[in-house]
Amino acid sequence: MIEKVYSHPDIYRIRVDLPNNPLQYLNSYVIKGETGNLVIDTGFNRPECKRALCSGLQELNVRLQPETSLFITHLHADHSGLVHLFSDAGCPVYMEPTDYQYLVDSADGSTWKAAEDNFMREGMPPEEIRSQFSNQARTFSPDPHFSITPVHDGDVLHLAGCDLQVVHTPGHTPGLCCLYLAKEEIFFTSDHILFDITPNIQVWYHMKHALQRYLESLEKVRDLPVRLALPGHREGDTSIAGRIGEIMAHHDRRLAEICHLVRCYPHSTAYEIAPHMTWSMRGKKWKDFPPTQKWFALGETLAHIEYLVDYGVLRRSEEQGCRHYDLVRTDI
Ligand SMILES: [Zn+2]
Fold first, then answer.
1. pLDDT in tens, 17-67
2. Which of 14-28, 129-143, 225-239, 261-275 is predicted least confidently?
3. 2-112+136-246, which class in CATH?
């Protein structure tokens, strides 16, 4: 399904459905220029997504040839999964190198293993860790054997007849980059700012202080003039400042909630705290959460706990390979 979202430059959205995934669909954006095209993000490496993306590109008469470039906003498989459709056809692929390296390193499973070991130390039972091996983020990720043109914060890409400014916004992933069309005040926000749902913030073993970095990245773009915000999932909006305020308030509530829970349940593990948090899972109880959702929920809990430990609000102690948390300050 394609939809024109802007004229001059001509920008289209291809809606790539993500079956059995709470994100519902990925927005792949296409800027059609006279001498070249730019595609932003792809969908998972699975047949349903491939069909949706290819039929959208066909309808737009965008050929998979070197005149078409791909920009991958971040490493997540729902954004990068179908990169080989482009790279195998000789299309230039633009991506931030930290996220690219993460994909390369995950090829032998070592990054997942490090995350599993970490979650085990945070109290997640081994059987629950095993049960999320079918996680879509793993199953539908791309083969990382492709090459990129690396991009960095502040770069201006001249593609599809446009000047696209790269805005590095670490937090959701270490290397997430948004794209900004300054003249038109159009902002491709990827998963940095979503409007119907709150972007997930995890812990990363090679990026400390993920939540702190994310909040800084929200500040970084808060005053950007934006008339059209085009997110990676769901629907966009005509401004970002209000939504950034809502997302910041959401994280403040989360931090306060964790302080309250650690006060109620001292010396808990993160895995013991997570079930008591407020999750919007359509009324489901923690025990009924799908394994993948438990994984993401624990990661989000940990990102907030890490923030509170950094600020000296919580104390982390480790006993027999398992981490516990206690409240030491109440003034946050
Ligand atoms: Zn993402």
1. 999 888 999 999 999 999 999 999 999 999 999 999 999 999 999 999 999
2. 129-143
3. alpha beta
Left (φ > 0), alpha (ψ -120 to 50) or beta: where does 321 sit?
A: left
Q: How far is the CA of 172 from the centre of ligand 1 (A)?
A: 6
Cα 67 to ligand 1 centre (Å): 27
CA 330 to ligand 1 center in whole angstroms: 33
Are 80 and 152 spatial neighbours (Cβ–Cβ below 8 Å)? no
Measure 201 CA to ligand 1 centroid, in angstroms.
9
* Residues in Cβ contact with 193 at an 8 Å cutoff, skipping those fewer than 6 apart: 199, 218, 221, 229, 231, 240, 243, 244, 247
Residue 161: partners with Cβ closer than 8 Å, 6 or more residues away: 9, 31, 33, 34, 35, 36
What is the distance in A from the centroid of ligand 1 to the CA of 325? Answer: 28
DSSP 24: -
Determine the distance separating the centroid of ligand 1 and the alpha carbon of 76, expressed in angstroms. Answer: 5
At 191, the amino acid letter reads D
Residue 185 and residue 97: Cα distance in Å, rounded?
26
Closest by Cα among 312, 286, 318 to 327: 312
| 3-state SS assignment for residue 139 | helix
Question: If you measure from the C-alpha of residue 72 to the centroid of ligand 1, how many angstroms do you get, rounded to a whole number?
Answer: 11
In this prediction, residue 111 has a pLDDT band, given cuts at 50, 70 and 90, of confident
Query: Which positions ≥6 away from 254 have C-beta within 8 Å?
Result: 277, 300, 304
How far is ligand 1, taken at its centre, from the CA of residue 190, in Å?
8
Distance (angstroms) between ligand 1 centre and the Cα of 152 equals 18
Domain ranges of the chain: 2-112+136-246
